[in-house]
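Possible regression after last week's pipeline update?

I re-ran a chain I had predicted before the update to compare outputs. Posting the input and the new output here so someone can diff against the archived version. Not blocking, just want to make sure nothing changed silently.
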Amino acid sequence: MRNSVITLAIIALATGCRPTIFTPKPPGYYKLDTPASHAYRVFNEPGYPFTFEYPAYANVVRDTVTYTARDPESEYWINVLFPDLSGIINMTYKSITKAQPLDKLNAEAYEMSFFHHEKAAFIDHSEFVTSDGTDCLIYTIGGNVATRYQFTATDTMHNFLRGALYFDVTPNADSLKPASDFIMRDIEHMLLTLKWKKPSE
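New output (post-update):
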């Protein structure tokens, strides 16, 4: 009996002194819950050369970070904020002029989209024309990149708009897919409802 007690004590001491084995957990990613449905309201601020419908669960604010007095058109640059999704659509406006023709603006937008090509799994694009005759182009960038969707819209004569969707979280295509796909429908709606104002409006 005494030998059994000693043996159990030795086993308990031996196993109790073993270091705790730590098993690291795989990295976690931010989970974003999308709204139950899509709903829209109108952006039609005085002085802006465009109007469109944007999500009711988003806020439109002037982009004061990149605005400079040296670039008067940056006064029309805006951000569409999705606070519940940690998302933002940066939208920049340019007039088509001899100094900045449409070809140049398209080339700049192309370069900014393909800036991500080294990290991107793929880059696709789709084109369509709205009922008002606005040419729209949407770039879809695959992989763990900073922006999944970028787009341009132009009447080809006077106005050019560029946008890019970003999330203020660690880029992970899988975890962000529900939110980015949800906002993609909003982007399409914004483009389909985009209208250019006349200078007097």
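Follow-up from reviewer: compared with the archived run. The first helix runs from residue 2 to 16. Marking as no regression found.
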